[in-house]
Amino acid sequence: MQLNNITFKQVSKKELPAYVKKVKSAFAPALKKSFGEGVYIPSDNEFLESCRLDGAETFFIYLDNKEIGGATIIVRPTNINSLELFYILPLHENKGLGTLVWKAIEKRYPKTIIWRTITPYFEERNINFYINKCGFKIVEFFNQWHKENNLQQSDEAITIDKGKEKYFLFEKIMKNEQ
Predict the structure, then answer these.
(1) Domains of the chain, with CATH numbers?
(2) pTM to 2 decimals?
């Protein structure tokens, strides 16, 4: 599989409900595994908020014209960009496609200086993916003792507005040849 087999299709406003449904279906198993049945799963509106942020680009992702996942990227004038949402459809998990797609995302945004993303503390698969597969580093841990429990969206920080929930902030500094 090569990077040029990965394509991105902009999600239209009409397709946003289908996109959110797919994001939720990808995220729900980890929440249920960690916390059991009846666990809170973010609402459609919470996911839609990410898609509506300034600079948001939301895509369905395809491999050889077959849908395999999706992503919401925030592109900022500072080129400190963030990965807000990212999923591989459950049918396509554990095949190395996440890493392949991430490389295609990096290629799609060559001016990025720093990539940022967050993931909950309990999401061991995500933590492994971002650190060991994609080259991110954990730079901050948000929790009840953190000085800023509610970061606001800015050019310097990814959006976290979840009160006392626990999240890692990841960064990947790119070595651009500009």
Answers:
(1) 3-173 (3.40.630.30)
(2) 0.83
